[in-house]
Amino acid sequence: MNFADQLVKAIEKKDSRVCVGLDPVFEKLPLEYAGASDRAEAVFSFSKRIIDAVKGDCACVKANLGFYLALGDGGFATLRKTIACAKGEGLLTIVDCKANDIGNTAEAYAKSFFGFLNADAITINPLLGSDSVMPFLDYCSRDRGVFVLVKTSNASSKDFQDLKTSPRKTLSEEIASKIVEWAEYGLGSEGYSSVGAVVGATFPEEAKKLRRAMKKQFFLVPGYGAQGADAKSLKSFFDDEGLGAIVSASRSVLYASGGKDFAEAADKAAEKMKDEINSALGV
Amino acid sequence: MNFADQLVKAIEKKDSRVCVGLDPVFEKLPLEYAGASDRAEAVFSFSKRIIDAVKGDCACVKANLGFYLALGDGGFATLRKTIACAKGEGLLTIVDCKANDIGNTAEAYAKSFFGFLNADAITINPLLGSDSVMPFLDYCSRDRGVFVLVKTSNASSKDFQDLKTSPRKTLSEEIASKIVEWAEYGLGSEGYSSVGAVVGATFPEEAKKLRRAMKKQFFLVPGYGAQGADAKSLKSFFDDEGLGAIVSASRSVLYASGGKDFAEAADKAAEKMKDEINSALGV
C-alpha cells in the first residue's frame, strides 16, 4: 500500500499525530543501564521498551541514524533490529538519515535504508537536486516514503533556507516547488503523496506559506518538546481536516524520567503530547 | 598537526593531487570475488588491495559511507577497518558521508566519523546552516578537516546550488562566503584552512569564481574519470602554486580491470591520473 495511505490509516487508527523520535544516547539512558558492557545491546533494550511503552500513543517512530552509528560496529545492526521491532508492533518507521549523494551512491543509500533496514520512510536532503533524489522517489512509487528537508527546526536554518531566490520566494519555497513536482511519484488514494516535507515546529509562520504551497504533502514536524515549540502553534502545519502532518518529539519522551519508571513516563509524555495536539486541532 | 598542513605535506611527498575514491559495490568486484559468502569481508579484501596498489600514487583516499552501509550489519566495521588500513599505509583518509543534522545529532555524527572511524576528514552538507556545522568545525581546530558541499559534480546540482540569491551571487557562492567565515576554525601554517569545499570537476567555469572567493580553502574535486571531466579543465580548481585542490576518482580506478590484474590496473590508472594532472598544472 502507498506510504501516505498507510500513514493516514495509522493516524486514524491511533487517533494520534505523534511520531516518537528514537535518538538514544548511551550516557543519557536510565540509571539501570549504567555500566552496561554492551552499549549497542543496552540501546536496543531501551529502544524496545520505549517502543512497547508508546506504541498506543503514536502513529510512527523515527530513528535517527546518527545516534545508532555513534554506537560503533554494532550500531547499524541495532538500528535494523529497532526498525524490525517497531514494525512488529504495527508502527510505521522512519529512518532520519538526511541522505544525499549523486545518483549511483544515492542508489546504495536507498538499498541500505529501504532494503536492508526495511524502513517505511526516510528523510532526505535535497541540496544536490533532482537526479540525486530520483533513486529514493523510485521507492515512493512502490510502498515507501520520503520526507524532504524544507525548513529545519534549528535557529541557523535561516542561513541558507531563508535566502531569497526571487522577490517572493525563499530557498525553502524553491525546494517546496520541486517537491510538488516530485509528488507524482507517490500519489496515494487519500489525496496525499508519499513524497513529504520536513518543516520544523519552531517556524509556524513559514509553515503557513509552505502549507499553502504543498497541499498534498505530509509534513514531518520536528522540534516539539525539547526544542521549544508548543501545540497551539502547530495548527498551521496541518490541513483543514487536521491531517497532513506528524509531529515528532525525541528527548522529551525518551528521557521523561531517568529512573525505573522511564517507560511509564515516556508513555505519559507521548499520550500528553497526543492529547495536546488533538485538542489544539479540535479533532 | 592541522589537517590542511598534513594535506600539503602529503601532496608534496607523493607529488600527487590524486584522491582515490573507495566506492566498492560487491556486484562490481573483480571476478575472483564472485560468489564470496561474506560480502563485507570480500569488500574489505578488495579495498585493502586497492589501497596497497595506489598508495604510491595518491595523497589520500576517500571512502563513501553509502557503499559500506549497503553491505548491511558488517558494513560500518568494514569501513572502520578500511580507514585503519589506509592510515596504516600513511595515507590521509576522508569519509564521504555528506553529514548534516541539528546540533546534538551533528555531535553524534562527529563522534562516529572522527572518533569511532578515526577519519582525518569528512564531507558535510551545509543546508542546515552554521549551528549544524559547528560540531564538525570543533574538530577542525584540532587535527581534523571537513569539505563542505558547495557545487556538486552531478547535472542536477543546478536545481538549487545555481539559484541566484542576489544579482551577483548564487547559493553556491553564499555557501562559499560562510566557509570563508568558518575557515578560522582550521587555519594551518601553510596558508590553508582545514575547512575545505567540494567543487565538482564537471564545472570548471563555476570553479574559477569559487576559487577567487575561497583562497584559503582546499577543494575536494570529484567527477574526474567516470563522470567525464579531464585534466586540462582542472587548472581553474588549483591556485597559482598548483596547490589547494585534490582530485577524486573512484570507478575509473577501482574497476580499471575486472580481471586478476585489477590491482595493477588500478595502480596504472591512478598513476596516469596523477601524471595528467601534474602535467596540466605544469608542476
Give a written overview of the molecule.
Two copies of one chain form a homodimer. Chain A has helices at residues 3-14, 39-54, 65-69, 75-88, 103-116, 130-140, 158-161, 171-182, 204-213, 251-254, 262-281; strands at residues 18-22, 60-64, 92-99, 121-124, 145-151, 164-166, 169-170, 193-199, 217-221, 245-249. Chain A has eleven helices and ten strands. The longest helix of chain A has 20 residues, at 262-281. Chain A is globular, with a radius of gyration of 18 Å. In chain A, α9 links the parallel β8 and β9 (217-221). In chain A, α2 runs parallel beside α4 and α5 packs parallel to α6. In chain A, 43% of the residues lie in helices and 18% in strands. Chain A has 283 residues and is α/β, with parallel strands linked by helices. Chain A has one domain (3-281): Aldolase class I (TIM Barrel, Alpha-Beta Barrel). In chain A, strands 1-2-3-4-5-8-9-10 form an eight-stranded parallel barrel, surrounded by eight helices. The first copy, chain A, has a two-stranded antiparallel ribbon with strand order 6-7. The interface between A and B is large, with 54 and 54 residues.
